[in-house]
Amino acid sequence: MNEERAGDVVIGLGNPIMGDDGVGIAALERLRDAWVVPAAVELVDGGTWGLTLLPVLESARRVLFLDAIRTGRPAGTAVTLRGDEIPRQVALKVSQHQIDLREVLAVAQLRGTLPPEMVAVGLEPRTFELGDPMTPAVADGIDRVVDLAVQQLRAWGHECAPARVNPDRPAARAASAAAVDA
What we know:
By secondary structure, the chain is of the alpha/beta class. It has a single domain (8-181), classed as Rossmann fold (3-Layer(aba) Sandwich), CATH 3.40.50. Helix content is 32%, strand content 20%. The strands form two sheets. It has a five-stranded mixed β-sheet with strand order 3-1-4-6-5, with helices on one face. A two-stranded antiparallel sheet has the order 2-7. The termini are far apart.
């Protein structure tokens, strides 16, 4: 078991060319653009890394996943899962290249190296079809995922502040609005 845990990690997951599956990566990019996050928090584009994410997980104290999360709710619904609510199992795969987060978590659990605290925030997806654009219901919810991520980081004691970026960018407008409302 890994006794030395580095810090907290935010991992954006998904594949942007697979419709709504790209929401985790889009939310991570929006978080980077619209917020100043402390250096103690590592922002990782996990994309479709599969088992190469294992060392990142095993060295983390706490992990926040940003992803498309299927729960059967309407597309675009914000979803938060904590700890054991995050699925971890080894599933039958057609190809050895089909490793996803569930398998990575299952391996870390078997090795006794799961991070002590894990949270996943995301949106209910509608489509994962190759070449499809992100559906409007999901695209419109990306700022909500970022807001949930910032709330979680603040709950973990990290000071996050709106970034000063180009005011014409949607992320900048959302961050400015949040700062005014605060």
